[in-house]
Automatic annotation (TrEMBL):
<dbReference type="InterPro" id="IPR029058">
    <property type="entry name" value="AB_hydrolase_fold"/>
</dbReference>
<feature type="transmembrane region" description="Helical">
    <location>
        <begin position="520"/>
        <end position="541"/>
    </location>
</feature>
<dbReference type="InterPro" id="IPR050261">
    <property type="entry name" value="FrsA_esterase"/>
</dbReference>
<feature type="transmembrane region" description="Helical">
    <location>
        <begin position="310"/>
        <end position="332"/>
    </location>
</feature>
<keyword id="KW-1133">Transmembrane helix</keyword>
<keyword id="KW-0472">Membrane</keyword>
<feature type="transmembrane region" description="Helical">
    <location>
        <begin position="398"/>
        <end position="420"/>
    </location>
</feature>
<feature type="transmembrane region" description="Helical">
    <location>
        <begin position="440"/>
        <end position="465"/>
    </location>
</feature>
<feature type="transmembrane region" description="Helical">
    <location>
        <begin position="588"/>
        <end position="610"/>
    </location>
</feature>
<feature type="transmembrane region" description="Helical">
    <location>
        <begin position="358"/>
        <end position="383"/>
    </location>
</feature>
<keyword id="KW-0378">Hydrolase</keyword>
<dbReference type="GO" id="GO:0016787">
    <property type="term" value="F:hydrolase activity"/>
</dbReference>
<feature type="transmembrane region" description="Helical">
    <location>
        <begin position="485"/>
        <end position="508"/>
    </location>
</feature>
<feature type="transmembrane region" description="Helical">
    <location>
        <begin position="561"/>
        <end position="581"/>
    </location>
</feature>
<dbReference type="Pfam" id="PF06500">
    <property type="entry name" value="FrsA-like"/>
</dbReference>
<protein>
    <submittedName>
        <fullName>Alpha/beta fold hydrolase</fullName>
    </submittedName>
</protein>
<keyword id="KW-0812">Transmembrane</keyword>
Amino acid sequence: MSHQKGRLKNSKFWLCLSLILCLVSAIVASAVQTSGGIRIKEMSWESPSGHQLAAYLYIPQNATKDTPAPGVVTIEGWYNNKEMQDLYSIELARRGYVVLALDLHSHGDSESLSIAELYDGAVGVDGAVQLIASLPYVDTARIGVTGHSSGGTAANMAVEIDNSRETPLIAAVLQQAGDWQDDTGGDHSGDYGSRSVGIIASTHDDFYFGTYDDAGNMLTNPAAFMETDGAKKFLNFNEDGFAGIAEGGKYYTRDFDGKTAYRVIYRPNMIHPLVAFSTTCVGYAVDFFDTTLGAPKPLPASDQIWPIKAVFNSLGVIGLLIFMVSFTLVLLDTPVFSALRSGEIVQPAPVQDNGAKAWYWVLLIIGAVFSGASFLFCMNTVYSKTTNFFVQTGPLTIGTWAALCGVFAIFCSAVFYGAYGKKHGWSARRAGLYLNLEQLWKTIALAVIVIVVSFGLVFAAHYFFQVDYRMYVVAFKTFGADKVLIALRYLPFFLLFYVMNSISANCFNYNTIGGKNGNILIFAFFNALGAIFVVASQYIYFYATGYQLYGLTEGQRIGPIWLFPCMVLLFVTPIMSRIIYKRTRNPYIAGLINAMFIVMISCSNTTTILGGGELIATTF
C-alpha cells in the first residue's frame, strides 16, 4: 500500500510540474510577442473574393491615426499555418511595423476551399493586403508582403492583382525561399515594376533556384543561382544586359520618377525549411524592410528576441507530453480506472540465450529498414492522391506509411511468436494483450479523457495568452470542428501503427537487453532510425553534390521535410508508452493516446483541399 501511495505521489509531482511548464511557457511566450506594448488581435473576415480568412494583427504603440506606420503581411508556406511566421512577425512588429500574419486559404483557421477556388484572390493574400491597407493607422504608401515558399509565390499572384489598381498598394515584396513564380507555374518576373523586391535564396533550397531542361532534368543547382540568367535579370529589374558578377546581399537600385527601387538576393547557406526558422534570415527581412519601407523604430538586425519565444514554446511541448503521461497515471489511481492498474511495476523480461538476442536485434534492424523503404514508397506513390474523403495530403501520405509499418509489425510479431516465442514460454496473456470488456471500455475512455484534457490546455493557452505549444514543426495548436472530423477519417491509419508500436515496444521487446531497467532507448532509436536515415541521406548527398538524392517531383522533395517532426515523435512515443505500460501491463492505453494526439496535430497543421484530386504543382 505504501508503495502504491509513493507511485501516486510521484505521478502527482510530475503532473504539477507539467502544468507549471505549460503555464510558464504560455506566460513567457506571450510576453515576448507583446514586448514593447505590441497589441495582438485575432482576426477573421470575409475577403473580397468571398471566402473567410484568418490572421493575427500585430499593432505597435507607434501606429496611430496621426502617425500611420508601414504595414507588412507575413505568409506561411504550404502545409503550415500563420504561427510559422512568428519570427518575422515579432521582429517586424518590434520595429514599429503593423503586421498581419495570414493563414492562406485552406490553411490554419482560414476557410478550406476546393482546388478550383483555392487561388481566388491570390490564395487570400490580396484580401490581406486590402485589409491592412484599410486600417487607419497604416501608411498605404508603405505596405510590404513577405512569405515563405508558397506563401511568397502567392504574394506574386497578389502583385499581379495589385497591378490592376489605379493606385497599387504593395510597395515591397520579400520572398523567403521563393522566386518570381507561383504554384501554378506562372511567371511573375515582369509584374514587379517599380516595387522593391528581395529574395532569400538559400544555397541548398529543396524547391527553388535551380534551372531545368525541357524534360525536367536539373541543369544548375541552387548553389549556382547567382550565375543564372534568371537571377541576373531579376537584379537588373527584369531587363537583359546585366553587367559584371551578381553579388549576394548587394542592393541594386533604379530610379522610378524620383523614387528609388531595390533588388537584392540574400544567400544563406541552409535548406528550404530552415529559412522559416533562422535568425540570419530574419535579419535579412529586418534589413530589407528598413531599407525599402523605413522602420519607425530601427533596431540592429541582430537584435532578435523571437528565439526566446521559440525556447518557451518548446518548453510547452515538453510540458504537454509530460502532462499526457502523468495525467494518465494519476487517473489510474481513481476508482473509475483503478481496474486498469497493474498490481506491481511490470519488470523487463530477462534475456539470457543467444537466440532471443538474435531475434531482438534482427527484428529491430529489419523494422528500421522497412520503415525507411516504405516511406520512400509512399513518398513516390501516395503523395497528393487525395480524394473527396481524404482531403489532406500530408496525413494521407504519412498515415499510409504508418499503416504499412503497423501491418509489418504484426507480421514480424507473428513470425517471432511462431518460430521462437511459443516454444520459449512467451505468453500473450502475461504480456497484457488480452482485455476483458470492462478493461476495454475503460481503456478507450481513459485515452479519450487524456486527449481531450491535454488539448484543453492548448486551447487555454490560446484563449488567455494567444500562444500555442510548438517545437519548430512539432506543433500543438487550436483547431475547429472541421479538423476533428477530418482527423477521424485518418485515425484508423495511425491507430494501426501506434497501437501495434506500443505492443511491439512493450509486449515483445521489453527485456533486459541494454540494462536491468529495460531497453526503451534502444527501441526508441530504432523506431526513428528509418526516418533519420532518409533525412540524413537526402541532405548529406545534397550538400556533397548540390543535387537531391531522391528525385525532383514535389513529393520526393517534400518527403524528407515531413520527416522532421516524425523523427522526434517516433523517438518520444515509445518512451511514453513504456512508462504507462509499466504501471498497467496494458499496451493499448498509450497506443490510443499516441495515435489520437499524433493524428490531431497532423490534421491541424497542414493544407485541406476540398474535393480531392492531385495538387497543382506544375513548377516541380
